[in-house]
Design a protein that fits this description.
Helices cover 30% and strands 19% of the residues. By secondary structure, the chain is α/β, with parallel strands linked by helices. The protein folds into 2 domains: 61 residues, no CATH class; 213 residues, Rossmann fold. A hairpin with a 3-residue loop joins strand 11 and strand 12.
């Protein structure tokens, strides 16, 4: 009979650990109150339930609960300290200059809206006009833009650049893409291939898997920071109810989510009618309810104007009700591109 060697030390809150080949930070440690099993390989040593929070780039904020003593291959990452200074050993001038240049570059990109990082981290050839939404967005206290380029001009790329830049500047962490069902896989693949960003599609399959793995009360809206969902699936009673639970009982500020992207947003615009009024649809009511829960908003459409000013101004009001109002023609200096 083979007896597996189990971890002896128990990590403390705040320590970094490696579990299941991923890095986590310990958020909570709860010791077992049950008596030790006499047949255990560790008689007299209680087991501990650890709550972990991921620090991986592709799963930042994801949570996991494990029994530390039973988790194979778990290890505590030792705390790192700065080396003791050695006055007789100095870096080469070129190496020191490169280090100072890197520090200066990081400080400038975090503070300046004119020095961009996202275009240099994207695996695509970017056209000049595709940088316009990125520059405009960074100049705004909250990124509220309607990108209305024609078909084939790369609205997905422009939105991806904004997402990447906000993530790099730590102005956003959670992102939700709402689009037609036929475009969910397209968005997931484009963001992964061109920007190296992992997004997960929220649907009935994912919801069932989360309930099996994490229990019946697991929420699909908090298990991962970057999500994609179909607008017609989201407006159903159960998905929308689970989404509402994430902000119920919380104050309106700070907002619970960071960035909302709505593709083909003209499908959510109120239908214009002769006579000066617009009729909201179920999609309109959905976007009107969830948009105020996000700090930043990106609306994408190749045909945002259906010929009725009432419908168009109502769509702009969904984007930013501080700059736009229904039945009021927008100022060209205040509108998006």
């Amino acid at each position: 009979m083979t007896i597996h060697t189990l971890t002896a030390a128990v990590p403390e809150v705040g320590q970094q650990v490696r579990v299941r080949d991923r890095h986590w930070v310990v958020a909570d440690v709860v010791g077992s109150l049950q008596p030790s099993d006499l047949l255990s390989t560790r008689p007299g040593r209680p087991e501990h339930l650890l709550s972990l929070v991921s620090v991986e780039d592709d799963a930042l904020g994801e949570e996991l609960r494990v029994v530390w003593e039973l988790e194979p291959g778990a290890e505590i990452i030792p705390r790192l300290e700065l080396p003791e200074p050695d006055p007789e050993r100095f870096d080469e001038p070129g190496r020191l200059d490169a280090f100072l240049d890197a520090v200066r570059w990081g400080a400038v990109t975090n503070a300046s809206a004119t020095v961009l990082q996202a275009p240099f981290r994207a695996g695509i050839q970017i056209e000049d006009y595709q940088l316009d939404p990125l520059v405009r967005g960074l100049s705004m206290p909250r990124v509220n833009l309607l990108i209305a380029d024609d078909v084939g001009l790369g609205k997905t790329v422009e939105a991806g650049l904004v997402v990447q830049e906000l993530l790099l500047r730590h102005r956003a962490r959670t992102v939700l893409v709402v689009c037609p069902a036929s475009l969910c896989i397209h968005w997931r693949d484009q963001l992964a291939e061109k920007f190296g960003l992992e997004f997960r599609i929220v649907d009935a399959t994912l919801l069932a898997r989360l309930r099996r793995e994490r229990g019946p009360f697991a929420s699909p809206w908090t298990h991962f920071p970057r999500l994609i969902v179909s607008i017609d699936w989201l407006k159903r009673d159960r998905p929308l109810r689970l989404l509402r639970e994430t902000w119920q009982g919380r104050p309106p500020y700070p907002r619970p989510f960071d960035l909302l992207i709505v593709d083909e947003v003209h499908h959510a615009a109120p239908a214009g009618r002769p006579g000066g009024y617009a009729t909201p649809s179920a999609r309109t009511r959905l976007i009107r309810e969830i948009a105020p829960r996000f700090e930043h908003r990106l609306f994408l459409s190749a045909t945002p104007h259906n010929g009725y000013w009432e419908s168009f101004t109502a769509l702009l009001e969904l984007l930013d009700d501080q700059r736009f109002a229904r039945w009021v023609r927008p100022d060209p200096d205040s509108s998006a591109r």
